[in-house]
Write a structure and sequence with these properties.
alpha/beta; Rossmann fold; eight-stranded mixed β-sheet
Length: 227
Amino acid sequence: MTIGLIGVGRMGKAIAARLANNFDVTVFDRDTVRLLAVADEYGLQAANSIEEMSDLGTIILAVPDREVISCIKIFNQLQKPLIVINIATNVDRHVLRETPAKHVQCISAKIVGQADEMMLGQRPVIIVDERPPELVPLAAEIFRAAGEVIIGRADMVSLINTIAAEKILTAAVSIEETLLQQNITDPAIIKTAIRQVAVGTLKAYADSNLGPFAREIVQAVRAKMRK
């Protein structure tokens, strides 16, 4: 199967790396240097334009939210049958239903994951939208090469990722400020406390692999939250 991928930034590159071993992938990005670097690294074909990509039949849009509609409008003008899979978190289902012309079919496959972690080998959960149902099997087949696929309402990923990001960034800022209040000001110590102790503990919690000391902290935190 041949697939087009538009956008090879952090998440686009992570997707390209996963799909390269399972599909013939052609990539495009307005940043020519980045495009050629990713194409060379993973042995992919590089297209010269978005218009050229429309000949592939199936395209993944790994572009910022605001660019998704612009890309679809370009495809509308080309009058070629095309399936577009959007991964932008904040582009809602109704936008993909209302924006494309009749010859362009759209579906979302949204990622509960983080690009850097994916590049390190972590497999994200990818929620393939349940509508339109006729596109679900294709989107699921493609994205099983990139992560664990769940069929459902993909728009929930915006809420999931927002909650996760806000909570962990709040924790990171709190750790930094608390250490500074304790006159611990060495940037290397603060960075390591966040990057290794905090993040390592968070991963252990997610994997149900906490040590006794950390489990006691979890119990205390839950008791406080119930009050």
